[in-house]
UniProtKB/TrEMBL annotation:
GO CC annotation terms, alphabetical: exocyst; plasma membrane
Region described as Disordered: spans on this chain: 215-257
Limits of the Exocyst complex subunit EXOC6/Sec15 C-terminal domain: 409-724
Lineage, uppermost ranks: Eukaryota, Metazoa, Chordata, Craniata, Vertebrata
Keyword Transport: yes
GO BP annotation list: Golgi to plasma membrane transport; intracellular protein transport; vesicle tethering involved in exocytosis
InterPro entries for this protein: EXOC6/Sec15, EXOC6/Sec15_C, EXOC6/Sec15_C_dom1, EXOC6_Sec15_N, EXOC6PINT-1/Sec15/Tip20_C_dom2
Protein name in UniProt: Exocyst complex component
Organism the protein comes from: Gasterosteus aculeatus aculeatus
Sorted UniProt keywords: Exocytosis, Transport
Transport as UniProt keyword: yes
Domain Exocyst complex component EXOC6/Sec15 N-terminal: 44-213
Assigned protein family: Belongs to the SEC15 family.
Gene3D superfamilies linked to this entry: Dsl1p vesicle tethering complex, Tip20p subunit, domain D, Exocyst complex subunit Sec15 C-terminal domain, N-terminal subdomain
Length: 819
């Protein structure tokens, strides 16, 4: 069995060797050498080789004739082949000779094909690289021209479109690396231009505000045209400017880029608007650049923060702003310029600033502005400056109101300033009135021609038909003070009216304001000035008389002032809410003060004359002939006559009261001379001299120095002094006068003095009883005692009349009894 298997295996190996490639026979042969039947396999192999040799031999024997024939034919063909070879060689030589030119052309063609392919590839690459290079070149040109917003747009296109198409080239890598730096450079440069813009508009805000205020002033003068927003471009124009974003403004940094344009070459009759003065392209550029960079919020916060800081600087007034109007004007111009810029930015940008932000800034500005104006205006004492300031505030408010800002608080503040303006006016008119009073000569105005008369009647509404009929030259009853004061009253009313203009007040409110201010002028300022003139030390009776005449005419002119105010305010004087002028009461009070001063001065002058009185109370009885009045009294009467002659133009009651007051004062003063405690005895001679003086006074009273007294009314002032004459002996009738004298004493003692005499003497009486005697009653008792002594020494009483008088040295000299 083993041999059979081995033989089968060897057969298989042989078949495999016959059928397998010689390169793969190694593993087969190795399996033979690894076995134990190597020799057997060799025998098998030899047998197979011999079998194949026999088959080859048979095959060769079978095909030998054909082989021989083939060799024979081959030998025949060899000659032909040699010929063909030579022909081919010859042809090849000719072909090679002829193909050299073609091969050169082919090589050239090949080179051209390669170049063409390279050119096509290069063109394709350049088609992607050239836009990058062109874009980068444009970027560099825009950067040099400082057109940063277009440069940023170019940069975005270069980064996201062109560079990805160009491929990975070194220059593309360099460009890609430079893009962040260029973007940062653009952002920083745009921010630098914005800072320059903010600094420029801060410096030139007064110029911007001045232009806007001038536009508002021109707008107010155009009565026929409707009110339009002042200094603001149309929304389409502003939107177009904002859409451009400054991208089309490619000029290098100049005054335009810093924010302020040069408008000096424009025509004088055309006032440029704020947008014509300011180039807002830096704002638009920076806004668009930061928007593209995704930093819009950062830019908005920065812009608003910087503008808030500038607002605080603008709203800080100068310390000496109140000294000149130019200081206020510069302050207002800066504020207007600031808010004109903010309003323009609000309407030409989308969300950079909003209405709430602008309103917040305006509220801050309004509070600080009002506080500053209240503080600085309080230092002002010039009404012209206050009036100019008011007009400037009104123009400032109208300007900002044209831009949509609420300004009602400014007008409320102007109404508060009206009180201050009134006080300043009162101070100025106080000085004016005092100057008028100091310069007045207190004498009637002489008028020699019709022109002079019309001049004064044009200044003061004088209505006196009798004076009109008098021929020239003539005198006006009042002094220069009256027309000047009346004109100053009208000037004051005009000054009050000027302040009320453009305050949006009704006619009734204006009328009420003027009337209240005029009342203050009359009741406080003019009244004090008149009191000052009346109370001056060097004022005389003639001046006081003229003051009374002047105040009388001014009082009569009050209704003309009422009509004057009504005419300029168009408010009827009889309207329900119309305030009445207090001029009548003011001039009445001044006239009463002047009258009282006349009485006081007249009595003081009388006292000066009476101080010259020097009676000799122990003078001897006169011999024959009538006694003359004392010299001082003669001079006093002459003075009174000359004085009362000046009182002809005074109202009758004033002159009568002055005359009666003077006579009573003379009578009282002479009575006090008699009651002087130092006078202990009075002789008949002294009584005769006093009686002569009393008669002189009575003669003056009978002469009627002032018209209007009925009968002997003026003589009643000397009725008490007339009793002195009863003490004088008058010849045969002296006994009768003595009896009358003692009867008079009896009546006085029992009915007037006895109730006081019966009291306990002061040394023994309590304190309450000692007050029973007044100083006047004790003096009068002493006077009666002196009269009694004098009469007793010169005229002994009849035997049936007994008189006892206590010695003057007795401690009970104040007690006496008539029996």
């Amino acid at each position: 069995m083993a041999s059979v298997e081995t033989a089968a295996e060897h057969e298989r190996i042989l078949r495999e060797i016959e059928s397998t490639d010689t390169n793969c026979i190694g593993p087969t042969l190795r399996s033979v050498y690894d076995g134990q039947e190597h020799g057997l396999f060799m025998e098998k192999l030899d047998v197979r080789i011999r079998n194949h040799d026999r088959e080859i031999e048979k095959m060769c024997n079978h095909h030998f004739q054909g082989f021989v024939d083939s060799i024979t034919e081959l030998l025949k063909v060899r000659g032909e082949a040699q010929k063909l070879k030579s022909q081919v060689t010859e042809t090849n030589g000719r072909l090679q000779d002829d193909g050299k030119e073609l091969m050169g052309s082919m090589e050239e063609l090949q080179k051209c094909r390669v170049q063409q392919r390279n050119i096509a590839s290069t063109i394709d690459k350049l088609s992607h690289c050239l836009p990058v290079l062109e874009m980068y070149s444009r970027l560099q040109e825009q950067m040099r021209a400082k057109r940063y917003y277009p440069a940023l747009r170019t940069l975005e296109l270069l980064e996201h479109t062109c560079l990805p198409r160009a491929g990975q080239y070194r220059f593309c890598s360099i460009m890609a690396e430079n893009i962040p730096m260029l973007r940062t450079q653009i952002r920083d440069t745009a921010m630098t231009q914005l800072r320059d813009f903010l600094e420029s508009i801060r410096k030139h805000s007064d110029k911007i505000g001045e232009t806007a205020i001038r536009q508002a002033q021109m707008q107010r003068s155009l009565d026929t045209q409707p009110r339009a927003p002042i200094g603001r471009r149309s929304r389409k124009e502003a939107a177009a400017a904002a859409a451009d974003g400054g991208g089309q403004r490619g000029s290098p940094v100049s005054e335009q880029d810093s924010g302020i344009l040069d408008v000096e070459d424009e025509e004088d009759d055309e006032v440029p608007g704020a947008q014509d003065l300011v180039d807002f392209s830096p704002v638009y550029r920076c806004l668009h650049i930061y928007t593209v960079l995704g930093l819009r919020d950062v830019f908005e916060n920065y812009y608003r923060k910087q503008r808030r800081k500038q607002a605080r600087l603008v709203l800080q007034p100068h310390s000496n702003m109140h000294e000149t109007l130019e200081g206020y004007r510069r302050y207002f111009n800066q504020i207007v310029g600031f808010f004109v810029v903010e309003d323009h930015v609000l309407h030409t940008t989308q969300g950079l600033v909003n209405r709430a932000y602008v309103e917040e800034l305006w509220e801050l500005a309004l509070s600080k502005l009002i506080a500053a104006l209240r503080t600085h205006s309080s230092y002002c004492d010039n009404p012209d400056l206050v009036l100019d300031l008011k007009n400037l505030i009104v123009l400032f408010a109208d300007t900002l109101q044209g831009y949509g800002f609420p300004v009602s608080q400014l007008f409320d503040m102007l109404l508060e300033m009206r009180e201050q303006y009134g006080e300043i006016l009162l101070k100025r008119w106080n000085v004016t009135f005092r100057q008028v009073l100091d310069q007045d000569n207190f004498s009637p105005i002489p008028v020699s021609t019709e022109e002079e008369y019309k001049h004064y009647t044009a200044q003061f509404p004088l209505q006196d038909p009798e004076l009109d009929k008098l021929p020239f030259p003539k005198k006006l009853p009042f002094s220069e003070f009256v027309p000047k004061v009346y004109c100053q009253l009208k000037e004051f009313i005009y000054a009050c009216l000027k302040y009320s203009e453009d305050l949006h007040l009704s006619s009734t409110e204006v009328d009420d304001m003027i009337r209240k201010s005029t009342n203050l002028l009359l009741t406080r300022t003019l009244s004090h000035c008149l009191q000052y003139a009346i109370k001056k030390k060097n004022v005389g009776l003639a001046e006081l008389v003229q003051v009374i005449i002047n105040t009388t005419h001014l009082e009569q002119s009050c209704h003309f002032l009422e009509e004057f105010i009504s005419n300029i305010t168009n408010v009827p004087p009889d309207s329900a809410n119309a305030t009445k002028l207090y001029g009548t009461s003011t001039f009445k009070d001044a006239r009463h003060a002047a009258e009282a001063e006349i009485y006081t001065n007249l009595n003081a002058k009388i006292d000066q004359f009476l101080q010259l009185a020097n009676y000799d109370w122990m003078a001897a009885a006169p011999g024959g002939g009538a006694l003359e009045a004392s010299d001082y009294l003669v001079d006093l009467i002459a003075f009174l006559k000359s004085t009362f002659s000046v009182f002809t133009n005074l109202p009758g009651k004033v002159a009568q009261t002055a005359c009666m007051s003077a006579c009573k004062h003379i009578s009282t003063s002479l009575t006090e001379l008699l009651l002087d405690p130092e006078v202990r005895q009075i002789s008949i001679g002294a009584l005769h001299q006093l009686n002569a003086d009393v008669q002189e006074c009575e003669g003056f009273a009978r002469a009627g120095p002032v018209a209007g007294f009925q009968g002997d009314t003026l003589l009643l002032a000397f009725s008490d002094l007339r009793q002195v004459g009863l003490c004088l002996p008058r010849g045969p009738l002296s006994f009768v006068f003595s009896v009358l004298f003692f009867l008079s004493l009896h009546y006085l003692f029992f009915h007037l003095l006895l109730p006081h005499v019966l009291f306990i003497p002061p040394p023994f009486a309590p304190e309450s009883s000692s007050k029973a005697f007044s100083s006047s009653s004790s003096s009068f008792i002493r006077f009666l005692i002196l009269l009694l002594l004098s009469f007793t020494l010169n005229n002994p009483p009849p035997s049936h009349v007994s008189c006892f008088v206590c010695p003057l040295s007795s401690p009970f000299s104040h007690l006496f009894t008539v029996l």
